[in-house]
C-alpha cells in the first residue's frame, strides 16, 4: 500500500527539518531539473517531487523495490503510453 500525506511533521516523531532527503547524482542543481527525492524514516520510505516538496508519498522498502523491479522489467510501460486521438 502506498500512502499519501501532505506533511511529515509529527509523523513517527519526525520533523521535516530532521528528514535527510536524497536525490540521484544524475540530477543537477539548476532550475528545471526536477527529480524524485527519497528519505528513509524508520521502516518507511518517503518520496517527493523536488518541484513540489510539500506533497509526500510514503511506502515500505519492499513495496518500493517491487515497483522498481516492475518498472525495469517493462510491466508498467502501458501506463505511460500516450492515448491515440
Write up this protein:
About 15% of the residues lie in helices and about 30% in strands. The protein has about 80 residues and is α+β, with helices and mostly antiparallel strands. A 5-stranded antiparallel sheet has the order 1-5-4-3-2. The longest helix has 12 residues, at about 60-70.
List keywords for this structure.
globular, 85 residues, five-stranded antiparallel beta sheet, alpha+beta, 29% strand, single chain, 1 helix, disordered N terminus
Element layout with pairings:
Blueprint: E1 3-5, E2 22-23, E3 36-41, E4 44-49, E5 52-59, H1 61-72
Antiparallel strand pairs: 1-5, 2-3, 3-4, 4-5
- What general form does the structure show? globular
Structural class: alpha+beta
Helix fraction by DSSP (H/I, runs of at least 4): 10-25%
Q: What value does the Rg take, in angstroms?
A: 15 Å
Number of helices: 1
Annotation, overall tally of beta strands: 5
Numbering strands along the chain, what is their spatial order in the largest sheet? 1-5-4-3-2
- Given as residue ranges, the uncertain stretches (5+ residues, pLDDT < 50) are 1-7
Measured by DSSP, the beta-strand proportion falls in: 25-35%
Beginning-to-end CA distance, first to last residue? 33 Å
Biggest sheet record = 5 strands, antiparallel
What number is the mean pLDDT?
A: 78
SSE order: EEEEEH
Amino acid at each position: 500500500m502506498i500512502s499519501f500525506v501532505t506533511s511529515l511533521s509529527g509523523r513517527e516523531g519526525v520533523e521535516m527539518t530532521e528528514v535527510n532527503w536524497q536525490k540521484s547524482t544524475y540530477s543537477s542543481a539548476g532550475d528545471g531539473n526536477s527529480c524524485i527525492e527519497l528519505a528513509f524514516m524508520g521502516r518507511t520510505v518517503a518520496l517527493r517531487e523536488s518541484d513540489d516538496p510539500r506533497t509526500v508519498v510514503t511506502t515500505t522498502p519492499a513495496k518500493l523495490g517491487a515497483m522498481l523491479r516492475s518498472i525495469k522489467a517493462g510491466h508498467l510501460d502501458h501506463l505511460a503510453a500516450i492515448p491515440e486521438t
